[in-house]
Amino acid sequence: MKHALYILALILVMSATFNSASAQSKKKKKQVVEETPAEMPALPSVLSRSDSVSYAAGMNYTIGLIPYLTRQAGIDTTKMDDFIRGFQEYLKRTDDPAFKAYAAGFDIAAQISNRMLPDVQNRFKDTQDVINTDLFYHGFVDALHNDTTVFKTIDGAGAFFQATLAEDIELKNERLYGPNREAGRAFLAENAKDTTVKVMPSGLQYKVLTAGTGDIPKATETVKVRYEGRLIDGTVFDSSSRHGDAPVSFRANQVIKGWTEALTMMPVGSKWTIYIPQELAYGEKEQGQIKPFSALIFDVELVEIDGHTTTPATTTPAAPAAAKKKPAAAKKKKRK
Q: What 3-state class would DSSP assign to 318?
């Protein structure tokens, strides 16, 4: 009798469990149905020309989408149904202000987490400070709420961030590249002892290999040059020959200060070796093989000044070093 009652109780428990699970399953299915956007409208039985081009345009705009989703957005292609569901949901609710704001939050979060946060973390790499992910997001959201618990103003927080970043980068560069700057200074000091080298008040040095007799360009004029750039250890980091056989053209004031100063003293037809201290080059900025605080050496041949109709320049052998000249003015925005 007890055994029969036990079996009956077990059947009742299993039945209740099954009914509960079945009810939960139905509830989940109902939720999925409710969350799934309406399917795209059925295609017309006959497509007009405009219908066809509209449909083709839609298909055309998917070209390159799958590679973008997989490589840039990190989407698993087995989840394309979920992507399509989100796409259709957005289309269905474009007139809903709350949903548009919600969707924009997704978009901004993706940009922040995938690009902006990694970028700022990389900028603080090897410095005394690190960017904490959770606190970064906390500050982001608090700023949107205008929460002044930590900083009185958003502008104040921004000023603190920029000042700290600048200080950290300066300390990092000093630690990592201070010896590089000292090596450049030592090289230039020794190079200045060469009697064929002219030293300008700015610190620029140059040696005349070929003395041209053509016009001297103004800072605002476009010049054509051939050149080779080297580090003080002899490493070639760039040359005009890498960009083709023709001379390279640019405006004389669109390059680093050392180049501008030299070019605005060079007659067309000249070929000089110029020695540029880091202050007149890239300073604390890193440019490929050029590390911060690097002194640079360039062989520069001034071929032509664009727009000049003067006769071709003649050349004469380089003369011995002469008295120092007053440097030409240099502009702030440079690139070479």
A: coil
